[in-house]
Structures are given as structure tokens and as C-alpha cells.
Design brief:
Glucanases play a role in cell expansion during growth, in cell-cell fusion during mating, and in spore release during sporulation. This enzyme may be involved in beta-glucan degradation. Active on laminarin and lichenan. It is built from 14 helices and twelve strands. By secondary structure, it is an alpha/beta fold.
Length: 412
């Protein structure tokens, strides 16, 4: 009797193990934390991360509970190599689990050239991007669970490359048709990853019929929200002194970061409100949000004083707490610093969004994980995972500044 029952139980477990998880199972599940990922380690973007370097990164992210990463380099070797790296890690270790949200870059005609961008026409490069994304999704169906059409491709401040929503809609419909025809798994979810304003959560200039049809066509909305950037561009929430009277410097910082969280929540709620005004009710997940640990420009000591490792850590925890509690995925931006971004200025904030430095040092947000031994035996660029500032919190806090008031802001 015991033997029979045990055999049945074993077969059930085996069936569960063989069941392929889908995007519906993964997105919004706090057991499957999400992260935005780029593996480029050098200022020279032409130097591709090696297969072993990609594996090292995936092991690090896996150790801290990340189970799905978002990347959009299908036109370069990184995306394909990343999928191969994950596949080989899974083959070598059945307990290794990692999935991918694969993005295809979308441009307008004349993007990134010395010619005037034509925003209502699309680049000829878009078609091969989409075809490559489909080919990779079909080659690695156990790993690729989402395809994203474009990355901040509709937001109008992306002046060098943005497209009108009909272009994104065209390619979303292309993917959805492939699913209907059996040429792409029906379990692959399709979205576009874009700024909250582009999804209808901002100005009325975005509220066009093609956007409405896009919202109806995608499987979920992948929304970007960046309160850090708005400490410079829309700083009212950051400069607001209400409720800060008599508070200590640390209390002011903590209140400011709670306001940053609320700012992100409000932007996302505005997207939801617009979506529902169309009679649509689909999942919303955060495709990108993050907080740089350093800036020598708009967000640094002569600007909004937003960037340091302490505020980055607070924001990271706030975003995890909020999205996990709300049943949303948050593809936090990002796992590792990428020196190729932001031009030649080493202090450009775009180079400093990682939770890890290029050499593998964990920033303050992850010091607790280092203490727990989460990264024991793992390396990046041949280095053990250790703490920034040599783990000296007092030294780290010396670089932390209180957000300015309006008078200080204008003086800068």
C-alpha cells in the first residue's frame, strides 16, 4: 500500500517538474523576481560579454532570487549568447531557473543618423529585429516568456528615434497573429516597454486611437517610471518642504524617498486609469524603474542631490515592497553598472544604475545579502562579491546629502 501511494506521489511531482511555466505564472509572482539586465562591462560597447561572463552574472542574480531578466539586444550577440548561457546553466544544474523578457529595438526612419528623423515612418532595421526575436523565442521556448516590441520607442523625448504608436501596434499584431497561426507559442506574452506617459498616463498628446488599439492588443502593459529623473525635470515633489519642519536630516531623506515611491505609484495609477477609461483591464507590470548611486550632473551635489548608495537602497526596497504586495513584476533597472552608457563623462548617472559595480562590488542595497553569504563562491570579472566602501557604512553615509529646498535649488 505504502509503495503504491509513494509511486503515485512521485509521478505527480515529476509531472509538476515537467510543466512549463508561462508568463502568466511568472509575472506578478513574488517568487519570481525580475531584473533589467545588460552585461556590457566596458566603455567600448563593441566588446561583447563572453558566455562565461554571462553565466557568472546569471549565477549572481539567481542567488539573490531573480528568476526573470529583461534584455533587448537581439540585434547584437548578447541576447542570443545570454539565452545560450541560461540554457547551458540549466542543463548542468536542474535547479537553476531563469526566464527572459526579450526586447526588440524599434526605431523611426533615419534614427541615429545625421538625417532628420521621420517619426511617422519606421526604420528598415525593425523587421529583422522582430524576426530575430521570434526565432530566438522559438529556439528557446523554455526560457523566453515575453517579447517586448520597442524600448521607450513611443515617448516623444526620445527625439532621435521615437515612432508613432501605429508602428508598435503593427509589430504587436504581427506577433499576436503568429501566435494564432501556431508559429509562436500562445503562451508567449507580447507587450511594449515604454514610459508611463506613452501608455496614456501623461499628457493628452499621447491619447490617440493607435495607442488605444495598442492597449487592447498587448497581453500586458510594461510601464517605465523614473522618479529619480524627475527630481530634476519635475522637482516639485522632491523640493516640497511640507512635513519636513523639525525633522532630522535622516528623516528628511527617508520621507523624500517615500515620496519618490508614491510618485512612481501615482504615475502607474494614471496609466491604469487611462487603460480602464477604454474599458480595458489588463495586467500592468513595471518594465523599468531605478535609482542611480552617483551623478556628477543633474542629480548630484550641484543638482537635486538625489544620487547615492543609501537612497538607491531605500528606493530598491520600496519598489520591491510595493510591487510584490501589489502582485506586479518589477524589472528593476538594473543588475550591473554599464560603463558604455551616458557618453564619456564618468559621472553620468546612466553609468551608475546597477546594484553591483562592474568589478562585482555589491552596493549598499545588497550589503545584507553579502553578510548572509548569498554570493559565497560567486565571482564577477574574477573578483569575489564584496561590499562597496569596504563595508564601512559611516564612510558611505558621508556621500549622502539631504534633498535641497526651493531656495537652495535655485541657488544651484
Amino acid at each position: 500500500m505504502w509503495s503504491c501511494n509513494n509511486s503515485k506521489k512521485s509521478n505527480v511531482n515529476k509531472g509538476e517538474e515537467n510543466k512549463q511555466l508561462t508568463a502568466k505564472d511568472i509575472l506578478g509572482n513574488p517568487k519570481y523576481l525580475a531584473m533589467s539586465y545588460g552585461g556590457y562591462r566596458y566603455a567600448d560597447h563593441s566588446i561583447e560579454p563572453t558566455l562565461e561572463e554571462l553565466k557568472d552574472d546569471m549565477k549572481i542574480l539567481h542567488a539573490m532570487g531573480i528568476r526573470i531578466v529583461r534584455t533587448y539586444k537581439v540585434h547584437l550577440p548578447q541576447a542570443e549568447n545570454l539565452l545560450q548561457a541560461i540554457s547551458e546553466l540549466k542543463a548542468n544544474d536542474p535547479s537553476f531557473e531563469m526566464y527572459v523578457m526579450l526586447g526588440a529595438w524599434i526605431d523611426c526612419k533615419n534614427a541615429w543618423t545625421d538625417q532628420e528623423p521621420i517619426h511617422n515612418e519606421e526604420s528598415e532595421a525593425n523587421k529583422p529585429q522582430m524576426e530575430k526575436a521570434v526565432a530566438l523565442a522559438n529556439q528557446y521556448p523554455d526560457i523566453v516568456k515575453v517579447i517586448a516590441v520597442g524600448n521607450e520607442a513611443m515617448v516623444k523625448w526620445a527625439a532621435s528615434y521615437y515612432v508613432e504608436p501605429w508602428v508598435i501596434l503593427k509589430w504587436v499584431n504581427y506577433l499576436q497573429d503568429l501566435k494564432k497561426e501556431g508559429k509562436l507559442s500562445q503562451d508567449v506574452w507580447v507587450t511594449s516597454s515604454d514610459n508611463f506617459a506613452s501608455w496614456g498616463g501623461g499628457g493628452e498628446e499621447y491619447h490617440v486611437e493607435d495607442l488605444n488599439n495598442l492597449i487592447k492588443a498587448v497581453d500586458f502593459l510594461s510601464v517605465h517610471t523614473y522618479p529619480m529623473h524627475d527630481t530634476h525635470y519635475q522637482p516639485e515633489f522632491w523640493l516640497n518642504q511640507d512635513g519636513l519642519e523639525g525633522k532630522t536630516d535622516m528623516e528628511k531623506i527617508e520621507i523624500s524617498m517615500l515620496r519618490a515611491k508614491e510618485y512612481a505609484i501615482t504615475q502607474t495609477a494614471n496609466v491604469k486609469k487611462y487603460m480602464e477609461s477604454l474599458g480595458v483591464n489588463k495586467p500592468i507590470h513595471i518594465g523599468e524603474t531605478g535609482w542611480a548611486s552617483f551623478s556628477s550632473g543633474h542629480y548630484g551635489t550641484t543638482g537635486s542631490k538625489a544620487c547615492d548608495e543609501y537612497k538607491e537602497a531605500l528606493y530598491y526596497q520600496h519598489m520591491r515592497d510595493w510591487t510584490n504586495g501589489a502582485g506586479m513584476s518589477c524589472f528593476y533597472f538594473e543588475g550591473f553598472d554599464e560603463p558604455w552608457k551616458g557618453g564619456e563623462n564618468s559621472g553620468n548617472s546612466e553609468k551608475h544604475f546597477g546594484l553591483f559595480k562592474v568589478d562585482g562590488k555589491a552596493k549598499y542595497a545588497l550589503w545584507g545579502e553579502v553578510d548572509k553569504g548569498t554570493f559565497d563562491g560567486l565571482t564577477r570579472n574574477g573578483n569575489r562579491i564584496t561590499k562597496t566602501y569596504n563595508g564601512d557604512k559611516d564612510a558611505m553615509m558621508k556621500d549622502v546629502e539631504v534633498p535641497p529646498n526651493a531656495e537652495e535649488w535655485h541657488a544651484n
